[in-house]
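request received
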Amino acid sequence: MAKNISFYLNGEKIEIQVDEKDLLVDVIRNRIGLKGTKKGCTNGDCGVCTVLLDGEPIRSCITLACMIDGKEIMTIEGLGNAENVHPIQQAFVEEGAIQCGFCTPGMILTTKALLDKKAKPTTGEIKRALSGNFCRCAGYSKILKAVKTASRNLA
Amino acid sequence: MKTEFFKPATLSEALALLDKYQEKAVIVNGGTDIVIKITQREVNPEAIIYIQGIAELKEIKEVNGDLVLGGAVTYTEVENSSLCKKYDGLIQAVSEIGSPPIRNMATPAGNIANAAPAADCNVMLLALKAEVVLASSGGERSANIQDIFAGPFKTVIKPNELIKEIRIPQLTANTHTSFIKMTRRKAQDIARVSVGVSLTTEGSVCRDIKIALGAINKFPVRAYTLEEAMIGKEVERGVAEIKEIFPPEATPRKSYKRLVTNVIIERAIRKAYRKAAAGGEHVG
Ligand SMILES: Cc1cc2nc3c(=O)[nH]c(=O)nc-3n(C[C@H](O)[C@H](O)[C@H](O)COP(=O)(O)OP(=O)(O)OC[C@H]3O[C@@H](n4cnc5c(N)ncnc54)[C@H](O)[C@@H]3O)c2cc1C
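response:
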């Protein structure tokens, strides 16, 4: 069996046939070919598969592709690229908030959703927003700094 | 085996599908518990019924003073709802579930139907004496939340039934609620012990109390023995007395839970009582 779904990915309309049991993360990575969204724990715990659904962070590893039919998805590729570096990405680079980089797309997208709602979050609010994004290099203090820098630069 | 994906727009459509497929159907709400089971073939449904498109299940409303959460309302929606605000314990319970991306998808109804022993929202709903309204194509019935659970990950919900809404009775005057869970980490961790409290006071006296315990038994239970020991006494005296009584309703398998349960209960009662002391006549 297969199902046709359509959704907006980084502003572009996608029409694609998926299996009913396909995970969103697999469709994004393997079918559409955008590899910025990572696949980590596959249990919804670690946060590396984070994408934005209508502007809010969700876990693409525990979401069926069929569930986002008709919705808007943003992945890290939709935020910026090497030519057009987004201020949040820039802040992560400047603050050295990237070590191995595996958690970075999820961290940055979660930060984007936070700053869209709250331009000047407190430290507590940043920690709370990022509480489901794990960095196993444990570079949390620099990530925290990067979010604050991004918040300043976007202001 | 083939699996079909349905996204019904109305409740009656969803109920007709459940009726047709019965135990071969699986409801997907936020999907945070069930999607993994589907992809790992722990369940092999012929029909996936995704219910987030049903507008009538997405409502939070007040009916005759009771708070009504629709069967597809998410935790984030509860956290942001002005109607839910006065239920401090409910907000405390849901705002610590998983992490924000989990709460953007996951639902109280899914917590109930999944029936994990450590499910946080269920514990608070038990302390709030919530009612679960179950709909099927044959009609509706409602059950007290304490009668819903039949074992770990087991409920009395029938294959053709859907949680249409959760009704939380209006808080009586001078009632304050609280929730505390003991975890190893602050975020995204499963409760080792959780306690939900609903405390009604008159001055410094406990007029009524409900104490719900999670992660200790096969499903959340009320600590009736401790409740009875508290009622009619000064809150402080009651708390001091129940400190030494391990609730007989709790049957933990791990010994450390015996050591911490009473501490968490005491903290949760004090948390509700502090609100009472600060809030005076405030209901909530
Ligand atoms: C990373 C992570 C962290 C988590 N942390 C916590 C936590 O801290 N505390 C906690 O309690 N839980 C936690 N959970 C578990 C889960 O998020 C909750 O149990 C949640 O409430 C499930 O809701 P859902 O809408 O996602 O359910 P789903 O996965 O959609 O469904 C769960 C079950 O309920 C059934 N169901 C759903 N809605 C209905 C309905 N309306 N009528 C009838 N049946 C229905 C489904 O068929 C399925 O069997 C966590 C999960 C993850 C992945």
